[in-house]
Amino acid sequence: MAIVISAMPKWRFDASQVALPEDWDIRFINPSTDEELILACKEADYLLVPASTPEINANVLRNMTHIKLIQSVGAGFDRIDTQTAATLKIPVANVPGKNAKSVAEFTIGLMIALQRQILVADREIKAGRYQEIRKILFKQGLSDIEGSKVGLIGLGSISQHVAKILNVLGASVSYYTVRKKLPATEAQLQVSYKSLEALLAESDIVSLHVPLDDTTRGLIGHRELELMSPGSLLINTARGEVVDQTALAHMLETGRIGGAAIDVFAPEPPGPENPLLNLSPAARERLVVTPHIAGVTVGAMRKMLQASLENIARAISGQPPVNIVNM
Questions:
Q1: How many helices (H) and strands (E) does the chain have?
Q2: DSSP character for 240?
Q3: 300 forms bridges with which residues in the sheet?
Q4: Catalytic-labelled residue, pool 12, 161, 239, 286
Q5: Strand ranges inside the chain, DSSP E
Q6: Would residue 268 show up in a list of annotated catalytic residues for this protein?
Q7: Family per UniProt (predicted)?
Q8: Span 100-289: which CATH code?
Q9: Which residue in 36, 43, 197, 268 is the catalytic one?
Q10: pTM tops 0.85, yes or no
Q11: What is the mean pLDDT of the chain?
Q12: Is pLDDT above 90 for 54?
C-alpha cells in the first residue's frame, strides 16, 4: 500500500468534497520544523503539499531521497528547492491553470474595490456617516474599468483570463513579459506589448501575474513604484516576494500611488512588524488586503485536489506523472 504524506489538511478535502483513495495509506501532517517534516516522511512514497507551505529545502530533500514524487496542490512550487530535487532525481509536479479563472475573477474584484472605494464606503456607512462618505466619494470621483489603461505583468493562464474580462468591460490592456508573445496571441487577447518601464508609467492599474523565481523576486521595488503614474493602482495576487513591501508602504504613505490590493505577503502569515500592517490611518485607506484567497474557492480547490490525487495515482500505477517542473 502506497504511503502518501499530506501537508494539505484533511479538512480541505472534506470542505471541497473530494474523496480520498481508500487503498492508500494517507497520513496528514502539520510540520513546524525541517526535522518534523523529515521524520513524517521517513516511510513515505509520495508527498502532497500546498503551493505556499511548507518550505522543502535542500536539507529536507537530502533526507527524503526515497520519495517518488512531490506533488504541489496548485500552480506554485516556489517553496520547493526544485534544483536540488532534480539533482536527487526527485520529481516535483504542480497543477497549473486549475484555479486561473478564480484568481482572475478575484483580481477584477480587487480592481473594482479600489476604484469604487467599496471598503471605505462600507465602513463609514456602518459607522453612521452615510451622507458624509457619499459626498466625499462624489467630490473625489470614482473610476470605471471601462476606459482604464490596465497593465498586466506576466501573461500566463491567469493573466490571459484577466485580459479577456477586462476587454469585455472596455479597458485598454497592455502586458509585459520577458518574452514577447506572438502577434496572433496578442490579437486574440486584444493586448499590446510594452516594456516594463512604459507599462508602469502609462497604466492606471498594474496587476502582477508572475511566478516567484530569481528573476521576479523584488521585481517591483522603489524604482518601479516611482515609475508608476501618480494615483495609479497596484494589484498583487502573485507572490508577496515580487513586491518590496517596505517600498510599497512608503508609496502609500506619501500618496504617490492611489492604492494597492494585496492578496499575498512575504512571509505568510505576515508578522506584526510587516510595514503594510503598520500604516498611518490615511495610508491604510489606500490599501486592501486579503489572506491569500484569490484562487481557493470551493470549485477551484476541488479541481486542484482532484488533479493532484490523479497525478499521484498515475505514479503509483507506474505511469509517468504529468506537469513535472524540474526534469
A1: 14, 12
A2: G
A3: none
A4: 239
A5: 3-6, 25-28, 46-50, 69-73, 92-93, 149-153, 172-176, 191-193, 205-208, 233-236, 259-262, 287-289
A6: yes
A7: Belongs to the D-isomer specific 2-hydroxyacid dehydrogenase family.
A8: 3.40.50.720
A9: 268
A10: yes
A11: 97
A12: no
Give a three-class secondary structure readout of 98-157.
CCHHHHHHHHHHHHHHHHCCHHHHHHHHHCCCHHHHHHHHHHHCCCCCCCCEEEEECCCH
Q: Helix 100-115 and helix 157-169: axis angle, to 10°? A: 50
- Within the chain, which residue ranges are assigned CATH 3.40.50.720? 3-98+298-316, 100-289
151 confidence band (pLDDT: 50, 70, 90): very high
AA identity, residue 218: G
Grid coordinates representing 63? Answer: 533526507
CATH number of the structural domain 3-98+298-316: 3.40.50.720
Query: Is residue 308 within 8 Å of 92, Cβ to Cβ?
Result: no
Of 292, 302, 310, 314, which one is the catalytic site residue? Answer: 292
**What are the start-end ranges of the E strands in 170-283?**
172-176, 191-193, 205-208, 233-236, 259-262
pLDDT reading at 52 higher than 90: no
Strand, helix or coil at 326?
A: coil
Our answer to whether residue 292 is catalytic in this structure is yes
* Residue 239 a catalytic site member: yes
Supply 142's cell numbers.
470614482
Whole-angstrom distance, CA of residue 285 vs CA of residue 96: 34
Overall residue count recorded for the chain in this entry:
327
